[in-house]
């Protein structure tokens, strides 16, 4: 399995960037995991960049109105999508305006991190932490308990 976090916008805040990098490093102990940052802009510009970055992967759009999953269901979903096709799972996070509608519609699944609306930078941290938690759950390790 290979995970790809594709996010619109850059994380410039150093402490937040450090926390994201910490969790990405933890995830990489279990599976290959890449992070791709897409420049923010109008949907007509962002959409094709998101599609190119996630080409060939099972695509999960992270959206406030997506499926609400607990940590165990999130882990099972990552494992399920990772066992399909080439084993690549791309998780997409939109910018200030969310994901372009055509990108959302083309996604294989739509999940929510919370019914709350997060700034995209914070959503990225929550997502990578949940990916790490998923890896520990899938292996029965104590972090998730």
Short description:
The protein has 145 residues and is of the alpha/beta class.
Descriptive report:
The structure is a single chain. This protein has 145 residues and is of the alpha/beta class. It has one domain (2-140): Alpha/beta knot (3-Layer(aba) Sandwich), CATH 3.40.1280.10. The protein is 43% helix and 24% strand. It has five helices and five strands. The chain has helices spanning 14-27, 43-53, 71-82, 101-106, 120-138; strands at residues 2-8, 32-38, 58-68, 88-93, 109-112. The chain has a five-stranded parallel β-sheet with strand order 2-1-4-3-5. α1 packs parallel to α5 (120-138) and α3 (71-82) crosses α5 (120-138). The longest helix has 19 residues, at 120-138. It is globular.
List descriptors:
alpha/beta, rRNA (pseudouridine-N3-)-methyltransferase activity, cytoplasm, single chain, 5 helices, methyltransferase, 24% strand, 145 residues, Alpha/beta knot, five-stranded parallel beta sheet, transferase
Give the SSE map:
Blueprint: E1 2-8, H1 14-27, E2 32-38, H2 43-53, E3 58-68, H3 71-82, E4 88-93, H4 101-106, E5 109-112, H5 120-138
Parallel strand pairs: 1-2, 1-4, 3-4, 3-5
Helix pairs in contact: 1-5, 3-5
Function: Specifically methylates the pseudouridine at position 1915 (m3Psi1915) in 23S rRNA.
Subcellular location: Cytoplasm
EC number: 2.1.1.177
């Amino acid at each position: 399995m290979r995970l790809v976090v594709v996010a619109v916008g850059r994380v410039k805040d150093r402490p937040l960037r450090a926390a994201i990098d910490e969790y990405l490093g933890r995830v990489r102990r279990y599976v290959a995991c890449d992070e791709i940052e897409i420049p923010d802009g109008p949907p007509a510009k962002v959409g094709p960049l998101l599609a190119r970055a996630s080409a060939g992967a099972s695509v999960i759009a992270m959206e406030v109105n997506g499926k609400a999953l607990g940590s165990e269901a999130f882990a099972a979903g990552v494992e399920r999508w990772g066992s399909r096709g080439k084993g690549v799972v791309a998780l997409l996070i939109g910018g200030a305006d969310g994901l372009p509608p055509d990108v959302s519609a083309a996604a294989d699944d739509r999940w929510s991190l919370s019914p709350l609306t997060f700034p995209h930078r914070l959503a990225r941290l929550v997502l990578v932490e949940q990916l790490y938690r998923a890896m520990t759950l899938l292996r029965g390790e104590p972090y998730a308990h």
